[in-house]
Each structure stands twice: as structure tokens, then as C-alpha cells.
Write a structure and sequence with these properties.
The protein has 157 residues and is of the alpha+beta class. 34% of the residues lie in helices and 32% in strands. The chain is built from 6 helices and 7 strands. The strands form 2 sheets. A 4-stranded antiparallel β-sheet has the order 1-2-3-4, sandwiched between helices. It has a 3-stranded antiparallel β-sheet with strand order 5-7-6.
Amino acid sequence: MSYSISRVQWQQAAPLLKSIREKVFVCERRIPKKIEFDNGDRTAYHMLVCDDQNQEPIATGRISPQGEISRIAVVIGYRSKKVDKFIMKGLFSIAKELSLKEVFISSPLDKVSYFTEHEFYPIGSVYMEAGMPKQRMACSINEALKNIDSAKYYLNH
């Protein structure tokens, strides 16, 4: 399989990005649309992956100008294909362009130990987001790049 990976702006690619996130987060994970689509979309940098064979959008993720990585979504039929690696490499590349030293994620509590194994460390207290307990975690961009091939990031709201 081959894929096209693009850095896109929300204003131009919103319908494609929304279609992926609605399938993954709204339909599968039952996250309300009003929470899924927020003002962060307009200011974030987005990655979009499409299947070259059928031209369908299959994966996305975003990074804020401050380094918050979120909304990583891969449609169900592609999750075993390691498409999340393409998204993360693109987001880490953007972080480097922005001269960010660290990136951040909001980890579900049951995944904290997983992200700790991949060089992320907790910051602050546990909080609720979209009805789920989360832990903010950080990782230096250099450590994140070292671990890109062994980590799984899809379905990270």
C-alpha cells in the first residue's frame, strides 16, 4: 500500500479532516462533536494521510503552536498499517521547525505507563476531558524522534 502524507491547513482541508475524526472520535469513541471540533483546529498544524489506491482520507493529527499533539485518528481498517508513524513524523518535523524543545499529549490514564515507556513523563494533575480522566505528558522532541518506530499514537484525543 502507498499513502500520500500532507501538511494541510484547517481552512482548506476541514471536510477531509472532519470525516476522519467523525468516524474515529464521534462515532467510535462517542465524543460529542462540540468537544471534538474546537477553536484549536484553526490555529493548529494538521497532517493528513490518504490512501493512494482509493484517494480516501485515512488518518490525521494536529499540533498546536505550543507543541500540544492531539486528535490523532486512524480509520479502523488502517490501524495495523502503522500509519500513525507518518502522522507523528510530520508533527515532530513541524515541532522542530517551530524550534520547540518538547511536545505534549493528553494521555488516557490507562495509557500513562505506555507513554512513560516511550520517554514521556507526567506533568500536573489528572483532569477530565470529554468525560475521560487524562494526564498531560511531555517528551523532548529528540527523545520523541528516537522512539517513533516503536510507539503507537493512534486514537489519542
